Amino acid sequence: MVKGLYTAHTAMINEEHRMDTITNNLANFNTTGYKKEGASQQSFHDALLVKIKDSSEWYLNRRLGNMQPGVKIGESYTDWSQGSLRETNNTFDMALSTYGFFQVEYTDKAGVTSTKYTRDGSFTMTKEGTIVTKDGDFLLDSNGNHITVDPIQDAYIDRNGNIYQGNNQLVATVGVTDFEDYDYLLKYGENYYEAIDGATEVPSQAQVLSGYLEQSNVDIVPEMVNMISIQRHYEANQKVIQTMDDSLDTAVNNLGRLQ
């Protein structure tokens, strides 16, 4: 009986984690370049039950079979599929045609500067001509430097990420990179990713599409369907716990009571 309570409890914890993942996806439906996440589940290893020191069995140990103690939260994963493109006609709005990341110089609250990676290409130009994110972080060029253009001249960005001004004069090349294994990328926050130990950068094959933004790859309808399914599973396990609680109450308080 107690085993059933534990199994239902672990199932509810797992469904709660899945719900958190889906609600985060839905909250980022309009976030540029956002990649949806998923959650997996795993079963605990079966435990072998053994009857020990039973006088009716001449005190011999006897196997009773395996017990499945429920499920546990598995690994979270990211869906790296391409989101749809939205045309903006803004020169410094950029999207990548395939896998890859823009390189951004990020400074945290402690003043520590590091390179982060993002699919969010909604960049803008400051009055000084520096290309930055909407949060003010610097877009880096292919050499890891800030990109600065003449703010009073028109700019053009080709598919290779080259920025031209004036008489087709090359000003800078947008820094785009990719990674050999995305398992070595962690979501950092603010729509950024950071590379951890073991990450290997490789040249990106992506084209830079100026005047476009990549939308999130979250599909609302499947996410809503999954949310309803999770709610039903959670409620079913609640009912299991309530039923077992009533049965335990009867067993403890009523069975064997002298009339």
Share of helix among residues? 10-25%
User: What is the rounded Rg?
Assistant: 28 Å
Through-space gap between termini: 26 Å
Range of strand content:
25-35%
Mean pLDDT: 87
- Major β-sheet profile: 5 strands, antiparallel
Q: How many DSSP-defined strands?
A: 20
Q: What pattern of helices and strands is seen along the backbone?
A: HEEEEEEEEEEEEEEEEEEEEH
- Low-pLDDT residue spans: none
How many domains make up the coordinates? 2
Q: What's the helix count?
A: 2
Q: What coarse outline follows from CA principal-axis ratios?
A: elongated
Structural class: alpha+beta
Polypeptide structure, described:
The protein has 259 residues and is of the alpha+beta class. It folds into 2 domains: 2-79 and 219-249, no CATH class; 85-214, no CATH class. It has 2 helices and 20 strands. The strands form 8 sheets. Strands 7, 8, 11, 15 and 18 form a 5-stranded antiparallel sheet that branches. Strand 12 (155-157) and strand 13 form a beta hairpin. Helix 1 (2-27) packs antiparallel against helix 2. The radius of gyration is 28 Å and the shape is elongated. The mean pLDDT is 87.
What's a concise summary of this model?
The protein folds into two domains: 2-79 and 219-249, no CATH class; 85-214, no CATH class. It contains two helices and 20 strands. The chain has helices at residues 2-27, 220-253; strands spanning 37-43, 47-51, 62-67, 71-78, 85-87, 94-96, 101-107, 113-118, 124-125, 131-132, 138-139, 155-157, 162-165, 169-173, 176-179, 185-189, 192-195, 201-203, 208-210, 212-214.
